[in-house]
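Notebook p. 47: complex prediction with coenzyme A.
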Amino acid sequence: MTGPHPAPAAVVTGLGTCLPESVVTNDDLSRHLDTDHDWIHSRTGIERRRRAAPGTGTGDLAAAAGAAALKSAGRDDCDLVLLATTTPDRRCPATAPTVASRLGLRAAAFDLSAVCSGFVYGLTAAAAMITAGTCERALVIGADVYSSIVDPTDRGTAVVFGDGAGAVVLERGRRDDAGALLHAELGSDGTGADLITIPPGADHLTMRGREVYTRAVTTMTASARSVAEAAGWSTDDINAFVGHQANQRILASVAKRLGLPPERVVSNIADVGNTAAASIPLALADAAAAGQVRAGDRLVLTAFGGGLTWGSAAVVWSDTEPVCETRA
Ligand code: COA
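Predicted complex, structure tokens below:
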């Protein structure tokens, strides 16, 4: 948008992450599962993932990532804490109020359930609340401890998922500010609910991987294209594509269909696997720390996951320095 008074927008001013210390390599998994490093690496791009220590829950990682994001923003308060997660600490109440309390906040706080799309859903919802005037500054956290819901004997899921948390601080600003979220779009298709699910009465996640794979490629491509168009960007204008880290081959296929060269695709799946709602902020933090994403860059963030759900956001990056923590 141009003109003397750019419209209000939600602006990213902080980025923080927290990963568990414990690293589980493909070789570690193949000692107990009928799999091997070459299969996992060639089919997914994953080399290792992090696993939370027994007793460490989503709230622990979320609070640490939230504190890191506030530190990155140079702030110590906010009036909304929105936690996207599939693995809340309890079924009731939500985990977000406890996370807010641990950060010393009496902010509005709620959990959001959109599986691997949770962070983009959360970003979109918080941005809408900011531009509507409901809140001034929001902490949007994606945190998941999938090791608590994955069947360790199921090689189709046990090799794929990892634990982690990532967060951003969003505050009220203007569309021409660095960090502005320019456009977002969300979607769902509940006819695919059985493709990634914890079946009623079961404790563990099941995934029909091949079907999810196909749907992920086509849907992420369409969603990324549509949000870029809405932001007024051509493919050449996109400096970096920050997609949900579900599978390196999915990221490569989407990039190819979009016409993006590999160097503009952000990827940290080799190190962390699929961390569900934490995936996009963790990837963004690694890219920002490595200088792959710089101030002024036009980013397309695109997620896809259980529900089925998906979403994309067009963001102009700022000079925000990520703060990255680890804990047991
Ligand atoms: N090690 C060795 N072999 C494995 C294996 C593993 N960890 N997991 C599955 N296999 C086997 C299967 O048993 C199957 O064997 P068969 O041909 O003898 O029946 C074969 O490999 C192919 O299985 P398939 O599930 O079709 O593999 P795939 O190439 O589709 O890879 C995923 C599986 C999960 C990595 C892949 O489907 C995927 O990434 N899906 C998308 C996930 C996603 O996008 N999620 C988004 C939201 S979270």
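Notes: The mean pLDDT is 97. The pocket of coenzyme A is lined by residues 35, 39-40, 43-44, 116, 155-156, 159-160, 196, 209-210, 212-213, 216, 246-247, 250, 274, 304-305 (CB under 6 Å).
Next step: compare against the earlier run before touching the bench.
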